[in-house]
Design goal:
Nucleotidyltransferase, domain 5, 2 domains, 303 residues
Amino acid sequence: MAPSAPAPSQPLRESYTYHSPKPTAAGQYILGVDEAGRGPVLGPLVYGVAYCPVSYTEQLDELGFADSKALTPETRVALLDTLCSDPTNLGWSVRVICPQAISSGMLRRPPTNLNRQSEEATVLLIREVLDSGIKLSEVYVDALGSTKPYEAYLSSLFPGIDFTVTTKADSKFKIVGAASIAAKVTRDVCIEGWAFEELDGTGCELELVEKWSKDVGSGYPSDPKTQAWLKNHVEPTFGFPKFVRFSWTTVKLLLEKDGHRVKWYVTDEGQASLKKAFETGQGRDKDRCSVTKDLQLTSVGYL
């Protein structure tokens, strides 16, 4: 059981942040950032940070932190215990973004894509560590894609801190490896102990828990076990439990294929307006923000 995961039988209804006790060692600190669960179609996305005094880096190198994906589950759990074993020098935090928050962000208009949600989680964690009184001098961030613009963005938000944003930072910097452990173990415990909110008071909890919890696989869309779980558990009217990220293409295709279609019956002008509000924008109107639509602003391309 990770202290950063929900209590047993407690559904994950909203995103939350967990902070370990604040280290008491004096001086400047380094901090690492990494995530677990960016790609899966199931479960939360977890961002983790770990931090320690600059003077503690030699001891940190000897603790065995590394990219969590290269370690066994047993080793990861042991390393989280290590991360908790020296509260004078070691601190860590996680931001757990629940599946429904991921999906609602990506499906709203205009959307908040996964990159933006990831940035917001990272900034929140760094800001809250600073607000606790920790003085950061260096921050190392594991990231995908083009890293320099993101590095410049973080530097502009937190002047005076030296940022390094790079790919595979969890294997290059031990403090990022420690953050990777915090994020990965938290997500694993969330998945293994997932409490299905939809079953509260239904009277068929045991039957459906056994059905929904069986052989979910890794959660990645390419995993045959995950694909089979999704295909076998789609409900034509309601789709899936909140364990599933509805914004993933894998899920959208399954719902289009096996779900009940919604038909809007237009009986008057008001209903016609309602139908239009739910239609997807076409052509130049695609992805336009709601303000321009509300003000009935027209693209210059139509003038």
